[in-house]
Amino acid sequence: MLGDDEIKELQDEIKMLEEQLRERKRELSEKRYAGLRAAMEARKEADQLLSEELKALGVRRVNWHPFI
Question: What is the DSSP letter of 63?
């Protein structure tokens, strides 16, 4: 049988490992979606530049939606 001290040590170790697991999962998620986030930011910047250019050309409204 395990003593109270051994059980407490195991519980503490489990808590520590669970925290490490949560941190690693968060890091994995950040790395997995980093490319997508960068692409979305680039798209946003390109849309802004396009909007500014169209405004400079005097185009008031463009009825274009990329997902339709």
Answer: -
User: What is the distance of C-alpha 30 from the center of its chain?
Assistant: 5
Domain boundaries, the chain: 1-59
Cβ-contact 38, 46 below 8 angstroms: no
Q: Locate 32 and state its tokens.
A: 């997995």
Host H or E run for residue 31: helix 4-56
Contact 54, 62 (CB under 8 A): yes
Distance in angstroms between the alpha carbons of the first and the last residue of the chain = 66
pLDDT, tens digit, for every residue of 4-55?
A: 999 999 999 999 999 999 999 999 999 999 999 999 999 999 989 988 898 8
CA atoms of 17 and 49, how far apart (whole Å): 47
